TrEMBL record, chains A, B:
<feature type="binding site">
    <location>
        <position position="173"/>
    </location>
    <ligand>
        <name>ATP</name>
    </ligand>
</feature>
<dbReference type="InterPro" id="IPR036393">
    <property type="entry name" value="AceGlu_kinase-like_sf"/>
</dbReference>
<feature type="binding site">
    <location>
        <position position="49"/>
    </location>
    <ligand>
        <name>substrate</name>
    </ligand>
</feature>
<keyword id="KW-0808">Transferase</keyword>
<comment type="subunit">
    <text>Homodimer.</text>
</comment>
<dbReference type="GO" id="GO:0008299">
    <property type="term" value="P:isoprenoid biosynthetic process"/>
</dbReference>
<feature type="binding site">
    <location>
        <position position="208"/>
    </location>
    <ligand>
        <name>ATP</name>
    </ligand>
</feature>
<feature type="site" description="Transition state stabilizer">
    <location>
        <position position="17"/>
    </location>
</feature>
<keyword id="KW-0414">Isoprene biosynthesis</keyword>
<keyword id="KW-0067">ATP-binding</keyword>
<feature type="binding site">
    <location>
        <position position="212"/>
    </location>
    <ligand>
        <name>ATP</name>
    </ligand>
</feature>
<feature type="binding site">
    <location>
        <position position="50"/>
    </location>
    <ligand>
        <name>substrate</name>
    </ligand>
</feature>
<dbReference type="InterPro" id="IPR024192">
    <property type="entry name" value="Fosfomycin_R_FomA-type"/>
</dbReference>
<dbReference type="GO" id="GO:0102043">
    <property type="term" value="F:isopentenyl phosphate kinase activity"/>
</dbReference>
<keyword id="KW-0547">Nucleotide-binding</keyword>
<comment type="function">
    <text>Catalyzes the formation of isopentenyl diphosphate (IPP), the building block of all isoprenoids.</text>
</comment>
<feature type="binding site">
    <location>
        <position position="54"/>
    </location>
    <ligand>
        <name>substrate</name>
    </ligand>
</feature>
Length: 253, 253
């Protein structure tokens, strides 16, 4: 079994976050060409929602749970991010990558915002046949709240652990985690305590960069390092050469 | 918790099986109106693939497993039946039913053609909030074959058991199970042994009426009766009045 790479495309990388589901098809095409050039890699792709889903989730307060009134928001949020997923899958297939979309709402159960059931063996089976499963941040059913939002970052950590991945990358629209305009090369829990990276400026219901670091520190606790880098460095990340970004890892003893 | 009804729409009910993904939108609209009139019912809907998916599954020999060559057939088959699922969900939402599509490929794992992993707690959570999950026969990953086809009938039995449903209905384009042109009112294992119902005349890779009866006899063994009736009788089935079709049940002692 070849090692599986888990790669996330940030929502702001593939959409214009200031618009309403404004998909950046040119960027998607560039990313697809890069992934097609690394077709031998066993890959699971995850993408954020960006402006496809975040506005709906916010409008319907989906992350706060279900009341009588906001139930249509489950469909509306899911439909918006699913349309982005279709665009990602189509871009990949256009370059010959055997991509298939997987929607977390269809399989996941959460409790108070955290996944408690999430099958991954069929996803592993796909990668063994050269299929690239493409998942996304999504609304999912939550047995305490009714519904919640599961971020792409939470999915990345869940998949990385389940698939025993040792190569986890997050492609963003910045060169890495920035502090005073400079990339922080390595973050562990002690470094994280000193950082002030700020929230996401746009409509992100999942915690922006702070939420991302919290997820990835938990992944580091499980012994899996992760890499945050600019989307233009995907090829270098897949090649294992320097990407100039941030590595999130376990505290040095 | 209200009792959940599991209702299946046969593929030949909502598509023209002699065409290639020829969706019968008028029929879908009629069914949607009927379900909208029974909106108080907690309902899980399953539909067959009909001419959306069966031709692709057959062309790529998806049910025989994955080889190097036929891997694109997973996507092609799934995309075809997913397009039918979208049409079903849209028809329901147009009449005000809070329908959401759930794709078995996204959650299921099979072994030699039978489901071995299939989460249903999120589906139950949906029905408790008045959402109607709409599933469908689909290609799924299979840990022995690589891939297989899971029929809508297999999904019905799995869902009925998991959701402890006591009202399971299968709407078809015939009035029930026919023997010499007449409806057989009740089938148990002893009656089934004497039947010659024939196969499906069109491109059905899941066993037609014989496969259906085999699934439903297994469901009867688990103590759950099921009803096969003409699609025009959905309202009568939901009302619990006579539908003039076939009941599949356990053998009388």
């Amino acid at each position: 079994m070849t090692e599986t790479v888990v790669l996330k495309l940030g929502g702001s990388v593939i959409t214009d976050k200031s618009g309403e589901c404004a998909i950046d098809h040119a960027r998607l095409h560039e990313v697809a060409e890069e992934l097609a050039a690394h077709r031998e890699t066993a890959l699971v792709l995850v993408h954020g929602a960006g402006s496809c889903g975040h506005p709906e989730a916010r409008r319907y307060h989906i992350n706060d749970g279900l009341t009588g009134e906001n139930i249509p928001g489950v469909y509306e949020t899911h439909a918006a991010v699913s349309s982005l997923n279709t665009a990602v899958v189509d871009a990949l297939r256009d370059t010959g990558v055997e991509a298939i979309g997987i929607h977390p709402l269809d399989l996941a159960l959460a409790e108070d915002g955290r996944l408690v059931s999430f099958e991954t063996r069929h996803i592993a089976e796909m990668t063994e046949h050269g299929i690239v499963p493409v998942l996304h941040g999504d609304v999912v059913m939550d047995r305490l709240r009714g519904s919640c939002i599961v971020s792409g970052d939470q999915l990345v950590t869940r998949l990385a652990v389940a698939l025993a991945s040792r190569r986890v990358g997050l492609a963003t629209d910045v060169p890495g985690v920035l502090q005073n305009g400079l990339v922080v090369p390595r973050i562990d829990r002690s470094v994280a305590a000193t950082l002030d990276v700020g929230g996401s400026g746009n409509t992100d219901v999942t915690g922006g960069m702070q939420g991302k670091i919290a997820e990835l520190l938990a992944l580091a606790d499980a012994g899996i390092d992760s890499h945050i880098f600019h989307v233009s460095k995907i090829g270098r990340f897949l090649d294992g050469t320097g990407h100039g970004g941030t590595i999130i890892g376990r505290s040095m003893p």
